[in-house]
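call fold(seq) -> tokens
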Amino acid sequence: MEFDRNGKTRHQQMVVGLLCNRDGCPVGVEVFRGNTQDATTVEGKIAELQTQYGLKEIIFVADRGLVTRANDNALAGVQGLNVISALSHPQMLELLQRGVIQPELFDQTQIVEVLDPARPQRRYFLCRNPHTAQQQAKTREALLGRTIEALNRIASAKRRAKVEKISAQVGRVLQKYKTGKFVLWSVEDGRLVWRLDDEAIQTEALFDGCYVVYTDLPAERMSKEEAVASYKKLSLVEEAFRNLK
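ret:
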């Protein structure tokens, strides 16, 4: 606990790192400073597992926020380490643009495995959750509705305004509702001119409920069903976090 110059308590934020086994049972915990980015702890913790815990072979299951591009490159050269994680939405779009995956391959009844010729050692597992798809579509529709209302109010203002003022107003709206990628806009003669990017909305909708789990484990060591099930077990880690708090 710390105190400010007036003697009042100053609360400190912190980041809690939790290490769990395959069953979600915590085996290690560490507290980091509140400004620590989760992804910056990964490389050091992997090294610690190999040295302090003496583990020669590790299967690291992590959510998509932990395996950044930098971590992906760094972990690729670690002897005895394999990774199971999931792609971010931009990464999925990148595979779509290169023709590695297609929207019709995502099936809610079976897991489809594909390989990327540019990275053949990595296996991708295409999955779709229909309940999540409905929720994502509903959420997007609601956020777009609020965005439309807010932008229409700005565009219908009686007085013309400077570009900087209108841009700031639009920026606040798009940031609040996280809909910037769906809106095309400009300021013309002191007025906001905007429209929805229907193509961007349709592309986003193609992936409603879709997710891609990946691993560099060969098929003889782990099936696609086991890999996806391992990723889903991260919910056990989330439960352990809740219990820890």
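The chain has two domains: 2-129+209-244, 132-203.
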